[in-house]
Amino acid sequence: MHILRTDFTGSNGVGKSIIADLFQIVFVADTRYIKFATEGIDKKKRKIEKLPYESGIGYVFFNIEVNSGAYLTIGAAIFSQGHQLVKPFIITSSMELEKGKLDQYTFTSEKLLFSSNFLKPNREPYMLDELARDLPDKQNLSLHSFNSKEERSIHYNWLYQKELLPINLVK
Q1: Cα–Cα distances in Å, from 7 out to 1, 3, 20, 152?
Q2: Interval 111-163: pLDDT, tens
Q3: Residue 152: exposed, middle, or buried by beta-carbon count in 10 A (0-12, 13-18, 19+)?
Q4: Rounded CA gap, 149 and 87, in Å?
């Protein structure tokens, strides 16, 4: 284990490339710029709209410890249909994304999200708007999604200003 680096090792076909692809989906979140690691290698090219397996929506998310015991969740909803296949989101303890300090948005480890939080009782995934309505009641957390180009600029600026990204992806 290294405090400044994460390595992914393993045999061919165990999922190293998909991990890199999922990071790209969360941080780039624009299908025009996402290039999968396996493109050109495999006869069956990976397609974003095929990632939600047997459903209309899938999620990729990371719980990030921004300070000791203080977390945020960032991620993206991936849609199998529609004109916008990826919508980035941030889950915080605050209903507003203002210019405050990062610690006013964090939550404790007791509220960490897991894949089960993105599923209805019948095990189908929530649609993004349903999840946004459900999280405040069940977890006392707020989901902020970014749809338009202008909203994505707000998203990237927020991540950069809070020092969660080393560069501003808007530029």
Answers
A1: 9, 11, 11, 29
A2: 999 999 999 999 899 999 999 999 999 999 999 999 888 888 888 889 888 88
A3: middle
A4: 11
147: left (phi over 0), alpha (psi -120 to 50) or beta: alpha
Report the chain's C-alpha Rg in angstroms: 16
94 token code pair: 């605050």
CB atoms within 10 A of CB 92: 21
In a 3-state reduction of DSSP, which class is residue 112? coil
Beta-sheet pairing, 86-92 with 70-79: antiparallel
Distance CA 78, CA 52 (A): 7
Note every long-range contact of 122-128, with CB atoms under 8 Å and residues 24 or more positions apart, other chains counting.
Answer: 124/55, 125/52, 125/55, 125/57, 125/58, 125/59, 126/57, 127/56, 127/57, 128/57, 128/77, 128/87, 128/89
Instruction: Give the C-alpha separation, 32 to 59, whole Å.
Output: 19
Name which residue leads in pLDDT, 74 or 2.
74
Q: Are 147 and 84 in contact (CB under 8 A)?
A: yes
Cβ atoms within 10 A of the Cβ of 53, count? 7
Please give the model's pTM, rounded to 2 decimal places.
0.81
Mean pLDDT of the 7-31 span = 71
Looking at residue 144, the DSSP 8-state letter turns out to be E
